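so my prof wants the structure for this chain in the tokens format not the other one, which i didnt know existed until like an hour ago. anyway here's the sequence
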Amino acid sequence: MSSLHLLLPLALLPLLAACSGSSGAANAAAGGSKQSALDRQLRSLIAARGLTGDPAAGRELPGIDDPLAQLGKRLFFTKALGGQFDSSCASCHHPNLGGGDDLVLPTGVDAEVPHLLGPGRRQAFGTPGFDGGPTVPRNSPTTFNLGLYDSSMFWDSRVESLGKTPGMNGGDGLGIDTPDSFGFGQADPAAGDNLVMAQARFPVTSRDEMKGYFFEFGSWNDVIRDHLAARMGGYGVGAGEISDSWLPYFRGAYDSLGSAEELITYENISRAIAEYQRSQVFVDNPWFDYVKGADFAISEAAKRGAVLFYSDPAAGGAGCYQCHTGDFFTDEQHYTLAMPQVGRGKGDGHLNGPEDYGRFYETGHPDHKFAFRTPNLLNVAVTGPWNHCGSYTTLEAVIYHHCQPVDAVANYDFNQLPPEVQTTYTLQVTNDALNQLLIYRASGVKTIQDVPVTPQGLADLVEFLHTLTDPCVLDPDCMEPWVQRDHGFDQHLLLAHDQGGEEL
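here's what i got, hopefully its the right format
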């Protein structure tokens, strides 16, 4: 990344200060009746952008105490759903790691220490495909607030609602397109009730994430899932593979005395995991308090950052809201941003290779090359590293890239990456993506444009993004209901810290 002294000369983003003589103490004493010019400007923008401060309004989402969510939590943490018993959903998406793994890129199966999560998790020497670096080509997205998406799951939207009805989380009756569909844009009859349930069907089928190289080698996805369900239920092909008895938990969650064959199906497994993930609703943040009328919920710097975020470039703003729209901070569309490409990549045409064409692999549309879905920004300060391959490790750097992508790529700081992350082809592939971005700009395809930014403006935008953090996600005690600690099963996990680790 470019250091701040390399930023382009600036005419720039007007950063407004509160009216002199209207201090916070004076406003508080007056009951907040004297609103600053900054507050008035920001509240005008809030109204213009249609913000309500309630992204979960109108949605039916489970609580963590829901019986299905409780079963889903057990399933989310068990390595018995890993083909070779060495990875779980929580290996890459832990609640105490922002719903992700705090890594640039994940290592799923074949980790040196399978129960170690976060920094230090890496592939064991000599395992299939070993090259010393991360094995999964895309950054682990957070599981927080998955129930607020209506259009799609994954960076490339390979699980996609065909109806996209707002508030329905993909469960609008029009179907969900998945990698198991017979053709792009076709409903998968087995997708399930909503986008999150459809998403929960695929990590267990991924060779690098959870399946492994040898479990059900060459089998169709449904064969893999059925084998795992039989393993969990102790019947058929999976009989005797584990000693734990899951039937009582399925009977309790589904309120049924059915047999293992009837209850422990992958459909019921994915539904329970989805309810656990959909219960992770963390939206009580200072910004929404401000939107709802609390003038003193956020700092003056954060207010200046919000003005930049919600103002158009023609008005001196950064225009971030144009893609990070609404209270959920995403339009769920796909854009080419030319983020530095690190790691193994996805490969042109799904062959092994360092590039990642993103949405293009799903649609083949010429405007989708190197394009990825806009992530939501709720709790963004705790969900890094950022972008589809985690190549930015500070909010300052990723914001600057959005404002000045050409300069950001030219001055990318490789020192921010752990030494094991693969970077041999980073410059080549990233410049290909940057050239594609410039082609899209010239042809009118929507993508990021250059926006002048001062060091102060950059700091204010970062300050604003920090106000999107729900305090609960920073408090292990508050997050405890979402963490499985029943060591009667196989939930022996260790969360990596700079100084030792915490057993989970």
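also thought this was worth mentioning. DSSP finds 17 helices and eight strands in the chain.
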